[in-house]
């Protein structure tokens, strides 16, 4: 492999991994608080469509991004209400939001299909860093702002999770809501905040696709990325920094598989990310002897005060 | 807050069937009401819209056969999912399993020389096995390694989708179909018979109903059904009782995913008569079947009813588009609304409103115990 190919692979992997990273980071926080959100795909696609519509009609992709984040958060609020307050099945609630989101996004965006975005988010070249040899073109040239932001946010989230009181609170709520409650933590509020935060992140991930990466709108354009992000949260063992590596690894494998285009049919290569996802889950499971190691103890369990 | 008005919520341990039914009905009614609001948003009078839809689906023979036709894959996949959900196996992969069934049936029809009287049973058998096999990997990974089946079954959907796309653009692309991506047409003798001039491929419907009956019997009377129920309701008890999780899960997924595979056979052999675009083979039936199964609340026979209901939603989508100018994407929104409303209605089944103040604590505890 020559240097040029390595450089372009890294650069493309980074761009591809960005939406996965944003969505996975959000899901990590939600799950750390003990709530599974199967609605990530739905929140991403709603973010993508609303981001595009607002970005297209106002001419400002940043306003689109803001709205996408809000829409993702709103959908997550619904998930939080159903799964935390109503204590209904979290799986079904998330699935419902995904099915609803996919339907609604198709309806909302039907007049925008295939229309190129007038004013897309532009590339950002980091001054100085982009002129470095090899590393410059690989990491710091022609990437979107959201790619860099995602890396910074990941580092921040990692720090918050492990080295601050807030992170401690979040982890306690996910590991043992009873203990958290006894310690005076408002379990319900923490869970609400974590889930809504996850939705905001998913909305941003969707907007990255429709406002920067593509930049256009197409029905079902997230194409399972929300589900892959869910798998990434597991693969990263619920650690924000590991999520960076995991997302990048995904991007790299995916990009590399396209250099096999001469050997394999391109149509078959498009299914690679889904195969990787399964493989990644197998690797985690094998590594941990078949136990969901590292998963928050109370993951998926609704909390009812005074239950026992 | 309620106590101020002299009421309190009391948990219901086993909500009676009629309560569950009535609350589900109310949830569906709310979803249809919200759909009416959406009609109004699109500038269509909701009463007129529902009038037109009812006229053209339920009070019109051809329209009604379309409802049933759309219900066929939903009933088949839905019954399969009822079985999986009873074991707490979250099979979200019916969509891919439908496609696997469709591919297997097409493979037989296109490439295996069989006399017509053998071909149709062979296609169904192949579709059942292919669907079941498509569910094997997620099931195996769940039992052996504890891998979350929701994600793996979903990934298998995408893999199936791209394989079908590859087949119809590559190795199975028809010679006479230049410019289009689909396979050669099946020989006419291999088409499923339909009811008169309608598109209702009744053999698939018959299989669906038989399957619902069989699964009912399986759950109620057979050892495997008993094991499936115990596994779902109390995994610890199942382990204690020495139930073989591996065997039970694999058999369970064979039936669950196999049922979806049969639905795929019906779609290609009964309607398209060739392998077509994955989104044309299944209009999201595999995902909608989740709603069918949840509406049926673990009862395979009820899945016939909920399958017909969602079949009506699908058929209504066509009417909406053609007669009312409402975009086809509305079907997805309505399905999502229905599922959201059912899930929101769940607490009403688990609690009931009773007059009076809270019983003393000790009493509550004995009640729970």
Structural write-up:
The complex is a heterodimer of chains A (308) and B (369). With 308 residues, chain A is mainly α. Chain A contains 13 helices and two strands; from the N terminus they run ααααβαβαααααααα. The longest helix of chain A has 30 residues, at 3-32. The mean pLDDT of chain A is 91. Chain B is an all-alpha fold. Chain B has a domain at 69-311: ABC transporter involved in vitamin B12 uptake, BtuC (Orthogonal Bundle), CATH 1.10.3470. Helix content of chain B is 72%, strand content 3%. Chain B has helices spanning 17-41, 46-57, 61-86, 94-111, 116-145, 149-169, 202-221, 223-233, 235-240, 245-272, 278-281, 285-296, 300-324, 330-350, 361-368; strands at residues 7-11, 351-355. A two-stranded antiparallel sheet of chain B has the order 1-2. The longest helix of chain B has 30 residues, at 116-145. At the A-B interface, helix 4, helix 10 and helix 13 of A face helix 5, helix 6, helix 12 and helix 14 of B.
Topology (SSEs and partners):
The complex is a heterodimer of chains A (308) and B (369).
Chain A: H1 3-32, H2 40-58, H3 61-85, H4 90-108, E1 123-124, H5 135-139, E2 143-144, H6 145-163, H7 165-175, H8 177-182, H9 187-213, H10 225-235, H11 240-257, H12 266-269, H13 272-287
Antiparallel strand pairs in A: 1-2
Helix pairs in contact in A: 1-6, 1-9, 1-10, 1-11, 2-3, 2-4, 2-9, 2-10, 3-4, 3-9, 6-7, 6-11, 7-9, 10-11, 10-13, 11-13
Chain B: E1 7-11, H1 17-41, H2 46-57, H3 61-86, H4 94-111, H5 116-145, H6 149-169, H7 202-221, H8 223-233, H9 235-240, H10 245-272, H11 278-281, H12 285-296, H13 300-324, H14 330-350, E2 351-355, H15 361-368
Antiparallel strand pairs in B: 1-2
């Amino acid at each position: 492999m020559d240097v040029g190919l390595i450089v372009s692979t890294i650069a493309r992997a980074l761009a591809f991994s960005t939406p996965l990273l944003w969505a996975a980071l959000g899901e990590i926080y939600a799950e750390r608080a003990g709530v599974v959100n199967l609605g990530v795909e739905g929140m991403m696609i709603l973010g993508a469509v609303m981001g595009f519509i607002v970005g297209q009609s106002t001419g400002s992709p940043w306003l689109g991004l803001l709205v996408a984040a809000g829409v993702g958060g709103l959908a997550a609020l619904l998930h939080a209400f159903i799964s935390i307050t109503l204590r209904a099945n979290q799986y079904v609630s998330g699935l419902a939001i995904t099915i609803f989101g996919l339907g609604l996004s198709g309806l909302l965006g039907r007049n925008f299909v295939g229309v190129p975005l007038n004013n897309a988010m532009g590339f950002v070249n980091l001054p100085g860093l982009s002129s470095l040899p090899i590393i410059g073109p690989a990491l710091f040239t022609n990437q979107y702002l959201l790619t860099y932001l995602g890396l910074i946010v990941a580092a921040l989230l990692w720090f918050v999770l492990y080295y601050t009181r807030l992170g401690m609170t979040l982890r306690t709520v996910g590991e043992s809501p009873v203990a958290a409650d006894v310690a005076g933590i408002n379990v319900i509020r923490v869970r609400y905040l974590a889930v809504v935060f996850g939705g905001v992140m998913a909305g941003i991930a969707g907007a990255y696709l429709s406002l920067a990466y593509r930049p256009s709108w197409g029905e079902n354009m997230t194409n399972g990325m929300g589900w892959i992000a869910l798998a990434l949260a597991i693969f990263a063992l619920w650690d924000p920094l590991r999520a960076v590596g995991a997302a990048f690894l995904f991007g790299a494998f995916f990009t590399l598989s396209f250099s096999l285009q001469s050997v394999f049919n391109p149509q078959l290569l498009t299914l690679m990310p889904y195969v990787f996802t399964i493989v990644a889950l197998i690797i985690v499971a094998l590594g941990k002897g078949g136990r969901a190691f590292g998963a928050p103890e109370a993951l998926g369990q609704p909390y009812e005060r005074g239950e026992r | 807050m309620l106590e101020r008005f002299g009421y309190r919520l009391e948990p219901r341990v086993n909500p009676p069937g009629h309560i569950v039914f009535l609350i589900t009905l109310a949830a569906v009614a709310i979803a249809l009401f919200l759909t009416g609001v959406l009609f109004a948003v699109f500038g269509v009078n909701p009463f007129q819209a529902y009038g037109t839809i009812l006229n053209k689906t339920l009070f019109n023979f051809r329209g009604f056969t379309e409802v049933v036709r759309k219900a066929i894959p939903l009933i088949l996949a839905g019954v399969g999912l009822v079985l999986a959900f009873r074991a707490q196996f979250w099979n979200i992969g019916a969509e891919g399993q439908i496609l696997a069934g469709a591919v297997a049936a097409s493979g037989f029809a296109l490439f295996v020389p069989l006399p017509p009287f053998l071909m149709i049973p062979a296609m169904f058998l192949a579709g059942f096995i292919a669907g079941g096999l498509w569910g094997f990997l997620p099931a195996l990974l769940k039992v052996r390694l504890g891998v979350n089946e929701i994600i793996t079954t979903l990934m298998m959907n995408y893999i199936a989708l791209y394989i079908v796309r590859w087949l119809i653009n590559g190795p199975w692309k028809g010679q006479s179909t230049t410019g289009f991506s689909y396979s050669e047409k099946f020989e006419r003798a291999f088409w499923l018979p339909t009811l008169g001039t309608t598109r209702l491929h009744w053999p698939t419907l018959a299989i669906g109903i038989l399957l619902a009956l069989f699964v009912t019997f399986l759950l109620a009377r057979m050892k495997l059904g008993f094991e499936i129920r115990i596994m779902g309701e109390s995994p610890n008890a199942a382990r204690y009782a020495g139930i073989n999780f591996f065997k039970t899960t694999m058999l369970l997924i064979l039936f669950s995913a196999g049922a979806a595979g049969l639905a795929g056979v019906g779609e290609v052999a009964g309607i398209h008569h060739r392998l077509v675009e994955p989104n044309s083979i299944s209009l999201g039936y595999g995902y909608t079947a989740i709603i069918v199964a949840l509406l049926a609340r673990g009862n395979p026979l009820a899945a016939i009813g909920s399958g017909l209901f969602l079949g009506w939603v699908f058929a209504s989508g066509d009417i909406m588009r053609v007669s009312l100018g409402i975009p086809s994407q509305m079907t997805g929104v309505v399905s999502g609304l229905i599922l959201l409303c059912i899930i929101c209605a769940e607490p009403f089944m688990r609690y009931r409103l009773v007059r009076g103040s809270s019983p003393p604590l000790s009493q509550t505890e004995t009640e729970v115990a």
